[in-house]
Amino acid sequence: MARRLYVGNLSYQATEGDLRDLFAQAGSVASVKIITDAYTGQSRGFGFVEMTTDEEAQKAVSLFNGHALKNRQLVVNEARPPQRDRGPGPGRGGQERGGRF
Fold this sequence. Notes:
By secondary structure, the chain is α+β, with helices and mostly antiparallel strands. The protein has one domain (3-78): 2-Layer Sandwich (Alpha-Beta Plaits), CATH 3.30.70. It has helices spanning 16-23, 54-64; strands at 3-8, 29-36, 43-51, 68-69, 72-73, 75-78. The strands form two sheets. Strands 2-3-1-6 form a four-stranded antiparallel β-sheet. A two-stranded antiparallel sheet has the order 4-5. The longest helix is centred in the middle third of the chain and has 11 residues, at 54-64. 18% of the residues are buried.
């Protein structure tokens, strides 16, 4: 099963090809996506890499968390599920707001 990794502190000059080449050193890369601003198209400084297996994902985290890419120290860890899948909690409709009725 593929494992999705969060990659933060990306240089604005980093490309999806740069990430694919780097993470391929840890194993098979299923997908790469750098998140961009909807209006300007500029990188927002983070992205996601999906590795083919859990073992490759763990290897990638240990190899590349703190690794320098284009003069920036990468932050690499397992991605959290999208907010809509995280369940109830503050700001996600899971708790009462209190106040008067």
